[in-house]
Amino acid sequence: MSLQQPRYHGIPQSHPVQPRPLQLRPSTTNMSDDEMDLDDGPGDASITFSTSEAKGKRSAANLPVEVGDSLPCPTISQIRFHKPPLDRTNADGDIAVTKFIEQNKLPHLLFYGPPGTGKTSTILALARRIYSTTSEATLRHHVLELNASDDRGIDVVREQIKTFASTKQIFSKQESSASTAHFKLIVLDEADAMTATAQNALRRIMEKYTANVRFCIIANYTHKLNAALLSRCTRFRFSPLPIAALRRRVEHVIENEGVRIAPSAVSALLTLSRGDMRRALNVLQACFAGSTPLDEKGVAKTGPDVQRELITETTIYECVAAPHPEDIQAIMNTLLTEDMTTALLTVSRIKTLKGLALTDILQAVAEELCRLEVAAAVRVQWLAGLAEIEGRVAAGGNESVQTAGFAGVVKTGAEMIAKS
Asked: Which CATH number fits domain 243-320: 1.10.760.10, 1.10.8.60, 3.30.1360.40, 3.30.2270.10?
């Protein structure tokens, strides 16, 4: 069964909005060149990128060359399918970050945007290009990666970061080359989780040790970052990945792993991932693991001769607990055509039988209502009402009462259409 746009009793539909490509907005920053302390020998090979291997993300030194976000399910090969998206730093082909690297004038960087869009993968790829190496030992000397959601206090900034930034590696003639940067790189992932005190201490370190180190701050929300930090960085926004980019990577995984999946299921997977590559791969792995048959002891069978079940569109929707398009179509039809009592009973029955959350139904119905060509007043009535219902549910309101309110909002808009 393919994903098709449903029609609701003569109400025309506009074209769905296509995902926007990655928008990058580089801005300039002023940096000072202060004197550094010198470290007269190569760094200790035991140095790792974070304080503990047990928490936070893995260090760049411990990851393969082509690396991204590790995935929990071991059934599908993990990291090799999530290559660092270095070529997506500029959608117009004029790659700003690559020019910075070629001129050896890399500023402090701020990568921000929703999760699963390749921020960490990009800086790991940049690090390998900056230092012209894939050697783990070499990267340990030049790159310090901290997951700021774990290492988020003032002590980390004063001890680890300041110690790493205040020393300068003296490269040997054999290691030195025109493509090797003269500075170190500190990557602060999930920096929006850092405390305000730590952010205040970090801004002075960024300014004082610019001649020796560059910072790459990665965050999902910039409003949680100190304004002084933002002013010291060149910003790059990572938008949700377009469907075409997701499809290329997902189909690559499907082909290499021999996943049996229907074309309609692939389309559903890409739609539900909402531009998040990590989520798309995680859902695909979960469905792939669920399609593997079990032996008499309840252990998953392995081997090339194992016949796995076909992953269908329904499998994808059940895996993420999202409402199926047929259910949304039934809800839309009853809300737009039936009386209030019948519509409320139908919505409640579908919600209970399928185990759907009201917030998921609200989101799916809102997307369908936005595709309908109706008067502006009707659209405002629908969206304002649904937004208010969603806020009440998030605040802990009773779902039964809010379900009735949801039905009333859509019915009110339908009555406005009938009167016009």
From this structure: 1.10.8.60
